[in-house]
Amino acid sequence: MSVSQRALPIGRITAARPARRAWFGGMRGADYVWAIAFAVPYVALFLAFVIYPICYGLWLGSDPQLYSQLFEDPRYLTAVLNTVIYVGVGVNLKMFLAFMLSGFFMRKRWWVKALLVVFILPWATPALPAYISIHWLMNGQWGMFNNILWLLFGIDGPVYLNSHWMGLACNIGAYVWKNLPFWTIILLAGRMSIPQELYEAAAVDGATGMRKFAHVTYPLMANLYLVCILLDTVFALGDFNATYFVSGGGPAMSTEVLATLGIKYAYTLALPRLGVAEVMTALPVLIPLVYILMRKLRVSEGQL
Amino acid sequence: MSVTYDRTIQAKPPVAVGAGPAQAVRRPKRRPHYRLRRYGIEALAIAGGLLIAVWSLLPIYNMVIISLDSHDDVFSGAVWPANPSLGAFRVVVTEDFWYLARFWHQFGNSFYVGLTVMFLTLAIGSLASFTIGRMRIRHGWMLSNAALMTYVIPASFLAIPMYSIMQYYGLSNSLWSVILALTTFATPYAIFIFSQYGKSIPMELDESARIDGANPWQIYFWIYLPLMAPALVAVGTYALLLAWNEYLYNFLLLSTPDSMTVAVALAQFLNSDESPWNFMMATAIIYAMPPIILYYGFRRYMAAGLTMGGVKG
User: Residue B75's pLDDT is what?
Assistant: First the structure.
């Protein structure tokens, strides 16, 4: 999703309940009408704004010639490589940092709690101003980052956004910066829901640091961590804002990812069918991911 | 990762009942070792904390500093501006620049879109969750699967067909196109959270109301909704922020200054290389204020919303 404000529906950690009865005595006559009437708004929304666009997109991208045109375009191949790096590095780095930081924020000090309030600021800030600010921060000539490097160390920093790899690194950094607090809080909530008794029992048995982690924290957090990784992979795959505003896809469209290149094809180069075809090439990765996630999220409804 | 607060328990000297002189001698020997280690860890933690604070605040600080820059065209990027002034904010508030000529109107558009998306998401989501979870409509699982699927499809991948479809529906350049698209993407989360939260409301309430002759609408409106209030607040905040922060759909679907939202107006500054960046950053800060205020104001509810559908039992 290209939205910055996200939330995560993962089932609560509760024991699975037995299936509840339907309404007392079952539904009769007029109740069916009501039940269907209540479902109609969502069904209409889903058909009109999810199913119809998907079918229309499939139709738009159904010409095989588009794909041969696409695979001959070096910009597309660069974008695929960038997307793999962006998603692979961005998601794993962020989740690892979030996991470490969630451990840090478990510390019970007043200044840690105060820090958490500051730490959440990137998440509360809308994506657009944040990324525009990072774009100017990393500007090679006037950016504050290079000015700080100069003041502190006397180093003349490079022009970050003029290079493919550094530009991509800036995009990934910006994405991590924006979304790190959200995932830290999710993992923090996961850590806090581990009963303290388990740690106490482990301590009684003589476990310290690493062993507590390996035998208590890790087994209980592994599933949550996996779900977060999968979900964030989908989010990162569809992330438009970081690349569009931090590097702008430049220099010379070398830092584009699939989400931005599709829009560029469709609206800058006026090739909407090519744009749709480009997005469709992500489907072989996206469909299994969506399938696994749907299963994971549904299963975790009862227990996690 | 070690759980450090347990160490403090270990570090406490054992309560010595009838401690002899031998233990009294040994204790001061061991203490400095523990204390040194604890101070070391604490110092490391404080250094890490400082790093986190700098990392989190640097882009925000950069934004504020650029907006305080008093030059109109020369962008210095100094760590502290030579003549800080609030001039840029005055320009934005009085709409004294041609990109900002309709700023307050666009601000109103953003609010209109946000509040409408919030209202529609709450209405459609709660109705759907009521039939799925309470009335247990047949094939209700198909509805929840549809919602789940919408939730995990990246919105940016649907943008191009969505744009054509909005033309087809006759909604081009209308705020309603954005409202409907964003409602579509916000509702699945609402259905999910409402279904989760609804499980904590006892079914017996519905049953007794039915015995008293209430129809489903009355049960929904007078029993279900009031009891769902915390979930409604959490999801409402989520929907409002989602709509306020969205850029791509606003940019594609809205094109004239009168129909734009602030996000699109803000990104317009990037069209030209000679834009006054201090005006842009002042606009960005004003645009970022409502979500930040809302976020910190409703932090408790947001956290509740996260943990509700989130991970804490």
Answer: 57
**Does residue A21 surpass a pLDDT of 70?**
no
Residues A168-184 have pLDDT tens digits of: 999 999 999 999 998 99
Torsion over CA: A250, A252, A257, A259 (sign): positive
Higher pLDDT, A36 or A2: A36
pLDDT at residue B31, as a whole number? 58
Q: A39: number of CA atoms within 13 Å, CB side? A: 24
Close Cβ partners of B77 (under 8 Å, ≥ 6 residues apart): A136, A139, A141, A142, A143, A144, A146, A147, B66
Q: What is the pLDDT of residue B311?
A: 37
Phi, psi dihedral angles at A283 (to 5 degrees): -60, -40
Q: pTM for this structure? A: 0.84
- pLDDT value of residue A63: 87
Answer positive or negative: Cα dihedral of A180, B80, A139, B69. Answer: positive
Closest C-alpha among A100, A102, A185, A212 to residue B6: A212
* Average pLDDT of the residues in A151-164: 84
End-to-end Cα distance, chain B? 23
Instruction: Give the sign of the dihedral formed by CA B142, CA B148, CA B152, CA B154.
Output: positive
Q: Please, what's the b/e burial string for A98-128 (b: 16 or more CB within 10 A of its CB; e: otherwise)?
A: bbebbbbbebeeeebeebbeebbbbbbbbbb
Amino acid type, B279: F
Cβ of A45 within 8 Å of Cβ of B184? The answer is: yes
Question: Tokens standing for A16?
Answer: 């699975």
Which chain B residues are within 8 Å of A42, Cβ to Cβ?
A: 124-125, 127-128, 143, 147, 187, 191
ipTM for the complex shown: 0.83
Q: How far is B176 from B249, CA to CA, in rounded Å?
A: 12
Please choose, from the candidates B220, B146, B194, the residue with its C-alpha nearest in 3D space to the C-alpha of residue A23. B220
Determine the 3-state secondary structure of B148 from DSSP: helix
Asked whether the beta carbons of residue B310 and residue A12 sit closer than 8 angstroms, the reply is yes
pLDDT band at A50 (very low <50, low <70, confident <90, very high): very high
B63 CB neighbours in chain A (<8 A) are: 129-130, 133
Residue A214 DSSP label: I
Secondary structure letter of residue A47 according to DSSP:
I
Q: Do A42 and B147 touch (CB under 8 A)?
A: yes
Q: What is the pLDDT of residues B260-285, one digit of tens each?
A: 899 998 888 887 766 788 888 899 99
Question: For A230-252, b where at least 16 C-beta lie within 10 A, e where not — what string?
Answer: bbbbbbbbbbbbbbbbbbbbeee
Q: Is the peptide bond before A251 cis (omega within 30 degrees of 0)?
A: yes
pLDDT for the residue B4: 44
Q: Where are the beta strands (DSSP E) in chain A?
A: none
